[in-house]
UniProtKB/TrEMBL annotation:
Transmembrane regions listed in the UniProt entry: none
SUPFAM superfamilies registered for this protein in UniProt: HIT-like
Motif Histidine triad motif in this chain: 96-100
Biological classification of the source: Bacteria, Bacillati, Bacillota, Clostridia, Eubacteriales
Residues annotated as domain HIT: 7-111
Active site: 98 (tele-amp-histidine intermediate)
PROSITE patterns linked: HIT_2
GO biological process: nucleotide metabolic process
InterPro entries named in the record: Histidine_triad_HIT, HIT-like, HIT-like_sf
Protein name stated in the entry: Histidine triad (HIT) protein
Length: 141
């Protein structure tokens, strides 16, 4: 099992918890809800091990990972009915494979462009708001 103690996706430390909330574990990944909710329903699907590239995964791992990503995207589509879901896998510095799942709405923020990783001002929810979104996603996974 590849692990890097300096990676917040591996250590699951306070830096991670300050920007996202765990929703659940799937077959080969952990799903998080971003606290920043400019793109309502924005999630992050994080591979279970510290591997950087999709090409570092075995065929089986890659298939299982895409299956997890698809499962989350289907739940987001069903709940929020976005006009398009954007998938972002960047990780230049944090080299731990993860896919941003970003629902976009025609006429909404960043429509027709790349989504903003850290929009300002932030759109934050209260505890009740996060719980509601997380429960709806869990229910649809
Ligand atoms: Zn890692």
């Amino acid at each position: 099992m590849n692990f890097d103690e300096n990676c917040f996706y591996c250590s699951k430390n306070q830096d991670l918890n300050s920007i996202m909330i765990k929703i659940c574990d799937l077959e080969v990944s952990t799903v998080y809800l971003f606290k920043e909710q400019t793109y309502k329903g924005r999630c992050n699907v994080v591979f279970k091990e510290h591997k950087s590239e999709i090409t570092d995964l075995t065929e089986e791992e890659a298939a299982a990972f895409i299956k997890d990503v698809r499962k989350v995207a289907k739940a987001i589509q069903k709940i929020f009915n976005p006009d398009k879901i954007n998938y972002g896998a960047f990780a230049d510095t944090m080299q731990h494979l993860h896919f941003h799942i970003v629902p976009k709405y025609n006429g909404g923020p960043s429509w027709g462009k790349t989504f903003d990783m850290m929009p300002q001002p932030k759109t934050l929810l209260n505890e009740e708001g996060y719980s509601e979104v997380i429960n709806r996603i869990k229910f649809n996974l």
